[in-house]
Specification:
Blueprint: H1 2-17, H2 39-43, E1 73-80, E2 86-93, E3 101-117, E4 123-141, E5 146-159, E6 162-176, E7 182-196, E8 209-217, E9 223-229, H3 250-262, E10 265-271, E11 277-284, H4 285-291, E12 302-309, E13 313-323, E14 326-336
Antiparallel strand pairs: 1-2, 1-14, 2-3, 3-4, 4-5, 5-6, 6-7, 7-8, 8-9, 9-10, 10-11, 11-12, 12-13, 13-14
Length: 343
């Protein structure tokens, strides 16, 4: 019966994705919600919604990932983003046994200091810009393999003298095998609305998206593979200028449709030869499509990282390429605050 519930829920979720419209590509507010919350996520392409682990930062992209292994776990992330932008994420989780697992997280992004001038070019001083979100997540296990979760996310944004409040929410369902060799997940992220607007009465949309993902560990090799499909609510993520003419050949249309499908894919692989070291590489197809130079793509869309496990402390690092001249650096600290190290 529980497996039937899983199949039914996934079917309803996938059907729902065909009915929902959403905006991407700069047409939604609070874009900090799309930033990776940890170095591990950044190294694996930007998001890892299906990894069943003990890191509370992973709950940011899927509340159903909160589980009893996260009891008294702390995650702290700092990222040196593009153009002197800095952002970070702090998360803590505590398991409540049969009552489920809550996770609390705080995210911020500081866009830096800007020169303020009037329409005549007169320098008036400086101003700053920043955004914050409080992430309150909760997961409940329907059985040992299937869990559901929800996140409530108040958001505050200040851009010079203009401020805005918003409220978002995520809903997720997650299944993993008994040996954690395979996992499947489905998430609807960033439902919600602007509660107060910056300067006009028109409310902007949140960056809503539907995500599904799988990950699996190879049976006889120390590799775990992650595949995520995002923005499932909208098939064509490219601008209208790239629409094929009606008289395009079958082969050209087929190739174009394959490219449109790949725009949704984020892929990553972790090499974990033992308990001490993890090496990661990721690839974000849409990031490369949107941000590569026409003449030279370089490593745009690729991301790399590594992690060191010292027992109660895990340190992760990630390098992600957003552009041939734009690299981001992330470092995370994951601490086990239990009195005894988990076996």
């Amino acid at each position: 019966m529980k497996r039937l519930i899983l199949i039914f829920t996934l079917a309803v979720g996938l059907a729902f994705t065909t009915l929902v419209c959403a905006q991407i590509g700069g047409t939604a507010v609070y874009q900090l919600l799309n930033l990776p919350p940890s170095a591990r996520s950044a190294a694996l392409g930007g998001l890892v919604p299906g990894a069943w682990d003990d890191d509370p930062a992973l709950v940011y992209h899927n509340p159903a990932l909160a589980n009893r292994n996260m009891n008294n776990q702390l995650s702290l992330n700092y990222s040196n983003y593009l153009a002197d932008i800095r952002y970070g994420y702090l998360a803590f989780s505590h398991d409540l046994g049969k009552w489920g697992t809550p996770v609390i997280g705080m995210q911020y992004i500081n866009y830096g200091t800007f020169i303020e001038a009037n329409e005549y070019g007169d320098i008036l001083g400086n101003f700053s810009a920043a955004e914050y979100s409080l992430n309150l997540s909760y997961s409940y296990s329907l059985d040992s393999l299937l869990s559901v979760g929800i996140t409530i996310r108040p958001i505050y944004s200040v851009l010079e003298r203009y401020t805005s409040w918003g409220l978002g929410s995520d809903f997720g369902i997650h299944y993993h095998s008994a040996n954690n060799q395979f996992a499947f997940t489905l998430v609807a992220r960033n439902f919600g609305t602007q509660l107060t607007t910056y300067a006009t009465p028109d409310r902007e949309k949140l960056p809503f998206e539907v995500i599904t993902g799988i990950n699996f560990k190879l049976k006889h090799a120390p590799f775990r593979l992650h595949f995520t499909a995002r923005n499932l609510q909208q098939y064509n993520l490219r601008p209208a200028s790239e629409v094929l003419p009606a008289d395009a050949t079958f082969m050209k249309k087929s190739g174009h449709n394959i490219i449109l499908a790949l725009d949704h894919l984020v892929a990553g692989v972790e090499f974990v030869p033992g308990n001490l070291l993890a090496i990661r590489i990721g690839y974000n197809f849409l990031r490369r499509t949107e941000l590569r130079m026409a003449e030279y793509g370089g490593a745009t869309g690729f991301s790399f990282g590594a992690g060191l496990n010292f027992g109660k402390i895990i340190i992760d690092y990630a390098l992600a390429s957003y552009h041939v001249s734009g690299l981001t650096h992330s470092i995370s600290l994951h601490a086990n605050l239990n009195k005894k190290t988990k076996s």
